[in-house]
Write a structure and sequence with these properties.
The chain is mostly helical and 95 residues long. The chain is 66% helix and 0% strand.
């Protein structure tokens, strides 16, 4: 008599179920990571846009401050407010 190979038992339904749940979990985690990456990409893009806008606003405000404090403008406004250069003796230099 020759010994014949016995057929192996088919995998149980439990193993197949666990495998399906594991595959679904990995797929869900991958999807959530991609979603969060995309969300962060949009947030970074919005922050870059805001940085550009704020730099523009800063540049505009610096220019405005320079214009408002220019010597020519202040000299032109001085007579309106009764301002004049100091008279002799009004400036005291402390040694």
């Amino acid at each position: 008599m020759s010994s014949r190979a016995r057929p192996s038992n088919p995998p149980s339904a439990l193993v197949a179920g666990i495998l399906m749940v594991a595959i679904a979990a990995v797929g869900f985690v991958t999807l959530m990571i991609r979603l969060e990456t995309t969300r962060e990409g949009y947030r970074l893009s919005a922050l870059r846009d805001e940085i550009v806008r704020l730099e523009d606003e800063n540049r505009t405000l610096r220019l405005k401050a320079a214009e408002l404090s220019s010597h020519e403008r202040l000299r032109a406004l001085a007579p309106r407010y009764h301002l004049a250069p100091p008279a002799n003796g009004q400036v005291v230099i402390v040694p």
